[in-house]
Amino acid sequence: MYMRKKYCLIVLVVLVFVATVSASVTRVAFSKPGYMIKIPTSSVYPTPYIFRTGFSTEIFRLIDSLNVSKAVYFDADLTNTFKLGLTSIQGVSGSPPVEFGIHVQKKFFIYNNVSFTAGVHDFVFQQGNSKMDLDTKTISLFGVISNEKVYEYYSFNSYIGFGTGAFAKVYTDTTKKKSRTGIFAGFLLRTAAMKERGGLDILAEYDGNGINVAVRIPLSTDYKLNIGITHLENLPEFGERCKYNSPGIIFGVDFVVPRMSKSEIRTRVVKGAPGEEVRKALSIEEYYAEKLDSTIKAADLEIARLRDSLRLYENQIKFLTSQVTYLRQKVGVLEDSLRTIKLAKYALERNTNIALRHLSRSLKFFYEGDYIGALKEVEAAIELNPNLALAYARRGSIYYKLGDIERATLNWNLALKLDPDYEDVRNILKAMREYRLRSVRELKKE
Q: Which pTM value belongs to this model?
């Protein structure tokens, strides 16, 4: 209750100060609610301050005479979506004596980084000799769409919208009272410079009548210095005239009362200074927002764990898949090798059978005394299967009958080498060494 009374008192003081300013123009840079120079804004985020106030000036001429318009302003969020702004402007010579403006806008739509806000600016009351009259020609209906991107070291906000009144081209012929609708657009780049004080902002916009550029320099977390140029397209004409589209130099200062963060509220609650009032400041919405934040953080942590587990399982599956592919290749190679062995075995068995038939015929020729025919059959058997000890033993016997002891001995040794347990061949060689065997030619000579 105490804090609410305090804020109401501040608002009343600002209103009294605004009402005492004299002589004005309708629009002065940085005097309307929002973050831009002259165009309205929208945001998916709540306003980080309880209220904003300050002053702004536009200098149109410095030499010969000083033409300056001045403004004081105040704006605050009455609810999470409804914003109210108040301005009072002291204008250039020849302007209406006093203007007091009311500006309202409401946020209607939020989706991801995009939001839409509509409202009415420039309910302007001009102070006459005895009363304040509403100037209906200045009322500006508008709608604006924003897109806000936050990156690691900076953020980029873009705005585009449409509106009537001050957002449409101004007619030089005042006899034309035709209503028009204009478009406006702009962007705000928040840099990492002076980050500890909120960051330096670069602003550029087209307000329906001209191009405005400015920088917002943070003097502290609560005070910001605004410097810029209006109607940049007409800058070469600076100081020559003072019209609606005359270029001007902007200078102003913002002051904001930031919202108390939830951590600061808890610190004060724990310290108990002042406990009851601070507890009331922690609204139901913030309480449930905190609960939701903690739930979201827990869910994010669990999702991160599940994602890591899923990644691990995916890697294991990839490894097992590669292993299965490798084993399949090995199995294929082994199957091919086994098939080759089987074919070789089959061929060897077939050749062995044929070789044995040749050896059988060679034995027949041997007993018939046809040693040449027997030798041909043995040679055919050896060609089919060169590992048959019997074939070499038979060839050794044939050479012995032909009287070639040297070749006979060589073939018997080959047979014994292939089959070390071949006793018949071993006995023959033993007899040869003991000279118990003589060649057939020697027997014939005797």
A: 0.55
